[in-house]
Amino acid sequence: MFSVTEKANEMIKDFMKNRKENLPIRVMILEGGCSGTSLGMALDEQKQDDQVFEENGVTFVINQDLLSEIQPITVDFIETPHGSGFKLSSSFVNTGGGCGTCSSCG
């Protein structure tokens, strides 16, 4: 249903240790850009219609309706020659144009 890899959990804890606020991490749909919609994360307050997940000391929230549409969800942290960052995998289908980069659209 919802899982976080060990590497992602480690990187999130490292990020959170310097934060004053203790907000959960929201998993959400990000809209816009030339790639269309995608999954993202941000610090946010818990809302009444959220499902809450505790993963090794890190709290995640996601809207219950969204969760039912896109589960299972896996949060990972990847490192490539081009950079590093969090990768969210799910049954969510990106409806974007797939043009590569925004500068190549047109």
From the alpha-carbon coordinates, what is the Rg to the nearest angstrom?
Answer: 15 Å
Question: Largest sheet, order of strands side by side?
Answer: 3-2-5-4
Helix share of residues?
10-25%
Q: Per the principal axes of the C-alpha atoms, what is the gross shape?
A: globular
How many E strands?
7
What is the CATH topology? Answer: Hypothetical Protein Aq_1857, Chain: A
The computed structural class is alpha/beta
CATH class designation: Mainly Beta
Q: Overall pLDDT, averaged?
A: 85
How many structurally independent domains?
1
Q: Count of DSSP helices?
A: 2
CATH architecture: Sandwich
Largest sheet, strands/sense/barrel? 4 strands, mixed
Strand content: 35-45%
Task: Compute the separation of the termini in Å.
Answer: 38 Å
Summarize the structure.
This protein has helices at residues 6-16, 64-70; strands at residues 2-4, 25-30, 38-43, 50-55, 58-63, 73-80, 83-89. By secondary structure, it is of the alpha/beta class.
Describe this structure in words.
This protein is α/β, with parallel strands linked by helices. The chain has two helices and seven strands, in the order E-H-E-E-E-E-H-E-E. The chain has helices at 6-16, 64-70; strands at residues 2-4, 25-30, 38-43, 50-55, 58-63, 73-80, 83-89. The strands form two sheets. Strands 3-2-5-4 form a four-stranded mixed sheet. A three-stranded mixed sheet has the order 1-6-7. It is globular and about 30 Å long.
